Structure formats: C-alpha cells, structure tokens
C-alpha cells in the first residue's frame, strides 16, 4: 500500500513539475489552437465553435488578441463577428457585426487569450494549495503504512 501511494505521489509530483516547466509551451499551444478554432469557426454546432462561443460569452471577450481577429476569418466575410461577442444580444444586428467600426461599439473589444491565461494564473494559487494539502495527506498515509508494515513484520500484532 505504501508503495502504491508513493507511486501515485511521484506521478503527481512529476506532472506538477512538467506543467510548471512547460507552462509557456502550454500558453503558446493554447493560443495557436484558439487561432485555429477561429479560422475554422462555423455556425454548425461543432465542439470547437461551441467552445469559442462559451469562452467569449463567459469571459466577455472577443477574438484571440482582440475583436479584429475575426476580420481575418472566412466566417467574418459571410456573417461578421459572432453574436457570442455581443455586449447585449438585443442590440446586436448582423449589419453592425459586418462593419468593424460599428462592431467596436457593440462587441467586447478585449481578446480572450489574455483573459483565459490571467484567469488560469489567478486560480493557480488555489490549485497549488489544494494540491499541497493532498500531497501532505499522501505523505502521512505513506508514513503510517510503513509504520504498520514495520509493526506487522516485528510480530507485534497477533495473527488471527
């Protein structure tokens, strides 16, 4: 049991170190995937388009760096900026979304990449605290399992 707990502890420790060391690559990968999702955005309900819409609605952002990122997409030439970027759904007309100068007043202007990464970084202290607490309990479990094993091998418990 102690060996199993030690193995799990080491796997979690390695995952945390790898995540910390490669955090810049994770950010770069996220940015490129978000750009790719914008380029392939369409009205049909595929999961990438739904994810983009959810991020934009939840974080009140639009595009990767800013709302003008949508101008480089095929979707913009057909329908303009997506409605998920609108500040108010009632005040967002398709004609306004096709004109970048009018759209600037109706949509969120901040990009999603910065908001997503800053939100993740702000929550990292909570995640680190919880992880540290779990690691402490695992170490206590490993120590207690080793103590129990030692008592059993010393025949301090009666066999039933």
TrEMBL record:
It is found in: Membrane. Residues 1-19 form the signal peptide. It comes from the Eukaryota. One of its GO terms (cellular component) is plasma membrane. It is a multi-pass membrane protein. The keyword Acyltransferase does not apply. Gene3D superfamilies: Tetraspanin. Its main location: membrane. SUPFAM superfamilies: Tetraspanin (SSF48652). InterPro entries: Tetraspanin/Peripherin (IPR018499), Tetraspanin_EC2_sf (IPR008952), TSN6/7_LEL (IPR048232). The chain crosses the membrane at residues 126-152. Keywords: Glycoprotein, Membrane, Signal, Transmembrane, Transmembrane helix. The keyword Cell inner membrane does not apply. PANTHER family: TETRASPANIN, TETRASPANIN-6. May be involved in cell proliferation and cell motility. This is Tetraspanin-7. It comes from Jacana jacana.
